[in-house]
């Protein structure tokens, strides 16, 4: 199924010059696919090869592939690679939505300051509510199919504690973007499949920093949490792929050994 109808108009060269690295790489791969360098069913070079060839990091390659996957151009098979599933038409162009990495970057910048302001205005009752939410996060993260209700409400409460409606709304919008932006939703789904869960200790550190009513400490605790979220996403998604590749290789060796013993 071709989902290219959602593509954005092609950007000018000047506009493309302002692209992030992953967008530049995604456009190059898009042009290669459109130009016939790859046919439907062909496998793109491995993540490591693309990183070396284009002099970018592996997370950048991952973002570019996700952008292509969201647009319906490639299908990513865990442990195998990215395969071309559609060839774009001449009038189609590479489009982008907010990625999970961009969202985390924005949250680190904004929610760090939200936490700092909340440290000044938060009430004792709200601090107690935050502690209760940390306990709920621990409970909700236990099952195989865990919930994010307490995690979401934890951040919403801090937003409301700023006594600034615009900041509170911004925090809520960040969570809405998690589900509404295709690139972000796809990577988070991959992370969930890799068993990435909210880290209780990070949320408890934020709650303790707010209870100290020290803006700098609260800011640093929130930024540390966001940095850790990014690390968890990168590590877990990569580890999932490595584990699937390991299992596939082990299965192949077993089948080969079985034929050798016949």
Helix content: 55-70%
Shape: elongated
Report how far the terminal alpha carbons are from each other: 44 Å
**How many beta-strand segments?**
2
Beta-strand residue fraction = under 5%
Main sheet: strand order = 1-2
The computed structural class is: mainly alpha
Q: Write down the overall mean pLDDT.
A: 81
- Computed over alpha carbons, the radius of gyration is 22 Å
Q: Encode the helix/strand succession as letters.
A: HHHHEEHHHHHHH
| Main sheet makeup | 2 strands, antiparallel
Total number of helices: 11
Instruction: Give the low-confidence spans.
Output: 1-17, 239-249
Describe the model.
With 262 residues, the protein is mainly alpha-helical. Helix content is 68%, strand content 3%. It has helices at residues 13-16, 21-34, 47-54, 58-70, 100-121, 124-140, 149-161, 165-180, 182-193, 200-211, 215-260, and strands at residues 74-77, 81-84. Strands 1-2 form a two-stranded antiparallel ribbon. Helix 2 packs across helix 4, helix 6 (124-140) packs antiparallel against helix 10 (200-211) and helix 8 (165-180) crosses helix 9.
Task: Looking at this protein, list some descriptive labels.
two-stranded antiparallel sheet; disordered N terminus; 262 residues; mainly alpha
Q: Brief description of this entry?
A:
This protein has helices at residues 13-16, 21-34, 47-54, 58-70, 100-121, 124-140, 149-161, 165-180, 182-193, 200-211, 215-260, and strands spanning 74-77, 81-84. The chain has 262 residues and is mostly helical.
Q: How would the blueprint of this fold be written?
A:
Elements: H1 13-16, H2 21-34, H3 47-54, H4 58-70, E1 74-77, E2 81-84, H5 100-121, H6 124-140, H7 149-161, H8 165-180, H9 182-193, H10 200-211, H11 215-260
Helix pairs in contact: 2-4, 3-4, 4-9, 5-7, 5-8, 5-10, 5-11, 6-7, 6-10, 7-8, 8-9, 9-11, 10-11
């Amino acid at each position: 199924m071709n989902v290219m109808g959602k593509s954005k108009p092609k950007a000018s060269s000047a506009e493309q010059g302002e692209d992030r690295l992953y967008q530049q790489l995604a456009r190059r791969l898009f042009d290669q696919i459109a130009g016939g360098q790859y046919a439907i069913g062909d496998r793109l070079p491995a993540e490591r090869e693309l990183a070396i060839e284009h002099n970018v990091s592996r997370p950048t390659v991952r973002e570019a592939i996700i952008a292509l996957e969201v647009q319906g151009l490639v299908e990513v098979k865990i442990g195998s690679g990215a395969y071309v599933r559609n060839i774009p038409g001449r009038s189609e162009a590479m489009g982008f939505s907010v990625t999970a990495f961009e969202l985390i970057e924005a949250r680190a910048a904004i929610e760090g300051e939200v936490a700092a302001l909340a440290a000044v205005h938060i009430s004792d009752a709200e601090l107690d509510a935050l502690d209760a939410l940390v306990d709920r996060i621990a409970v909700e993260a236990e099952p195989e199919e865990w919930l994010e209700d307490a995690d979401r409400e934890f951040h919403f409460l801090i937003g409301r504690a700023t006594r600034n409606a615009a900041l509170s709304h911004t925090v809520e919008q960040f969570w809405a973007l998690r589900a509404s932006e295709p690139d972000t939703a796809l990577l988070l789904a991959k992370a969930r499949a890799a068993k990435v869960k909210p880290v209780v200790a990070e949320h408890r550190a934020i709650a303790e920093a707010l209870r100290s009513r020290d803006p700098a400490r609260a800011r640093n605790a929130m930024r540390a949490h966001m940095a850790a979220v990014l690390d968890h996403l990168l590590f877990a998604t990569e580890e999932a792929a490595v584990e699937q590749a390991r299992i596939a290789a082990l299965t192949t060796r077993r089948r080969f050994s079985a034929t050798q013993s016949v």
